[in-house]
């Protein structure tokens, strides 16, 4: 075939067994005569040569206008200009094995200040973040812009994180809360009314996190809430109280739990925003159906039933959540006490191995030891390495301040029955000569032993 342009066709070669298929190549038949200024200097005309195909299905293609050519194309152009023949591509036996190629590949080098060109897939991020603590997810959602939409559009991610960190014992959120809202109420901080940053108490009966001052101002007693339930005509609509979430307060004004109260000493309180919201909703919906009495009655039965169902669900959830938080708090307290006891025993054993050894009374006289045993963490060699120089320094300082103990012996002392003791002698106590610790008063019997 004679053609003024290069023509390439694909040659299918047999695939070797030990490695992958060789790169397909084509043959270019060039029948044009050399032209240009250097046509007379060309020694030999290039009739045909092999070129690698660039339009193989599945192979990466180089975009049009990309700078630079491949090594094969540069080599072909150079040989065409020199007028030399091109050797055929290496055979399959001359190429390296695929196992050798895999062994030569190295992991990506991570450098500080240089971002990776290839990022993670969204599925990888989902798996990674599902093992992240819910409190950490909240912080990432607020401070990282790229994580905001991803955490917003994947509500199951919050559920996986909650189940992984808190287990199945933690109650599921009610139908009126999303997973994000549930995590925000449980792990967030800050008053939802005044914005106080140190507020962490969530009142599950009202599904709000308030500080102490906002709780007092935004809660209503039962008779105050019933007085506010009036329609636009002044008609009493206090039957809506069953559709409202309620809480229980004691006589000192402290929140006890989800209501309503069942004893005389406890009082039922309602949330002021909930009272205003349900009264406004009832008045708006009732005005729309005031012309047709049958339609109003049908709507009221359905609306009232749904409200009662939601409130009962919230009350059951609030009680479960309060019990779960109480059990979690007790378990943490027991765990903290166990860790403190373990630290105390660990430090005492390590102090006995010092030169000179320190006993328990000497350790208790050191302020650093007393501060270390109240930390609710498991003991470790690193914690002892931090405490050891402090204890040795403080024990040496106390020994120098008090001085060496004087030799003493037990001497019986006899008091005559006729001897009268004044009031001050009865209040004297025995003081240790080394540490200055008061161990108690002297015995009041007639025979005593003194140092």
Give structural attributes.
single chain; 451 residues; four-stranded antiparallel β-sheet; two-stranded antiparallel sheet; 15 helices; flat; disordered C terminus
Largest sheet: 4 strands, antiparallel
- Uncertain stretches: 413-451
Average of the residue pLDDT scores: 76
* Shape designation: flat
As a percent range, the share of strand residues is: 5-15%
How many domains make up the 3D coordinates? Answer: 4
Strand-pairing-aware structural class: alpha+beta
- The count of strands amounts to 12
Describe the structure.
- The chain has 451 residues and is of the alpha+beta class.
- It has helices at 71-82, 98-104, 122-130, 134-143, 145-152, 155-166, 179-187, 212-217, 222-228, 272-288, 293-352, 360-364, 367-372, 381-402, 423-426; strands at 25-29, 48-52, 202-203, 208-209, 219-221, 246-249, 255-258, 267-271, 411-414, 429-431, 438-441, 447-450.
- The chain folds into 4 domains: 1-58 and 68-97, no CATH class; 122-314, no CATH class; 326-402, no CATH class; 411-450, no CATH class.
- The protein has a 4-stranded antiparallel β-sheet with strand order 5-8-6-7. Strands 1-2 form a two-stranded antiparallel sheet. The protein has a two-stranded antiparallel ribbon with strand order 3-4.
- The N and C termini lie far apart (124 Å).
């Amino acid at each position: 075939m004679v053609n003024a342009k290069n023509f390439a066709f694909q040659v299918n070669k047999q695939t070797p067994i030990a490695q992958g298929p060789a790169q397909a190549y084509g043959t270019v038949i060039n029948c044009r005569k050399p032209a240009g200024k250097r046509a007379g200097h060309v020694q030999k005309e290039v009739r045909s040569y092999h070129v690698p195909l660039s339009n193989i299905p599945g192979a990466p293609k180089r975009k049009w206008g990309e700078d630079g050519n491949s090594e094969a194309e540069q080599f072909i152009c150079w040989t065409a200009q020199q007028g030399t023949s091109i050797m055929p591509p290496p055979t399959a036996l001359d190429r390296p094995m695929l196992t050798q190629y895999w062994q030569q590949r190295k992991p990506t080098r991570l450098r500080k200040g240089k971002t990776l060109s290839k990022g993670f897939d969204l599925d990888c991020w989902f798996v990674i973040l599902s093992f992240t603590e819910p409190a950490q997810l909240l912080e990432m959602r607020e401070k990282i812009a790229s994580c905001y939409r991803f955490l917003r559009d994947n509500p199951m991610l919050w559920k996986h994180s909650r189940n992984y960190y808190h287990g199945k014992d933690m109650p599921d959120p009610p139908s009126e809360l999303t997973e994000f809202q549930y995590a925000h109420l449980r792990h967030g901080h800050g008053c939802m009314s005044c914005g106080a940053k140190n507020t962490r108490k969530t009142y599950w009966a009202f599904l709000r996190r308030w500080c102490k001052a906002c709780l007092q101002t935004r809660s209503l007693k039962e008779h105050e809430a019933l007085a506010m339930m009036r329609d636009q005509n002044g008609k009493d609509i206090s039957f809506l109280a069953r559709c409202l979430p309620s809480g229980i307060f004691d006589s000192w004004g402290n929140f006890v739990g989800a209501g309503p109260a069942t004893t005389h000493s406890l009082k039922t309180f309602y949330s002021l925003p909930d009272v205003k919201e349900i009264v406004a909703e009832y008045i708006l919906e009732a005005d729309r159906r005031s012309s047709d009495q049958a339609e109003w009655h049908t709507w009221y039965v359905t609306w009232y039933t749904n409200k009662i169902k939601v409130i009962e669900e919230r009350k059951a959830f609030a009680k479960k959540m309060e019990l779960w938080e109480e059990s979690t708090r007790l378990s943490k307290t027991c765990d903290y006490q166990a860790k403190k006891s373990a630290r105390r025993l660990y430090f005492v054993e390590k102090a006995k191995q010092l030169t000179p050894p320190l006993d328990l009374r000497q350790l208790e006289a050191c302020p650093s030891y007393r501060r270390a045993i109240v930390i609710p963490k498991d003991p470790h060699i690193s914690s002892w390495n931090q405490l050891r120089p402090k204890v040795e320094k403080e024990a040496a300082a106390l020994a120098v301040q008090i001085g060496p103990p004087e030799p003493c012996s037990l001497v019986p002392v006899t008091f005559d029955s006729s001897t009268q003791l004044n009031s001050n002698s009865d209040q004297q106590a025995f003081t240790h000569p080394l540490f200055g610790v008061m161990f108690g008063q002297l015995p009041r019997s007639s025979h005593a032993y003194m140092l």
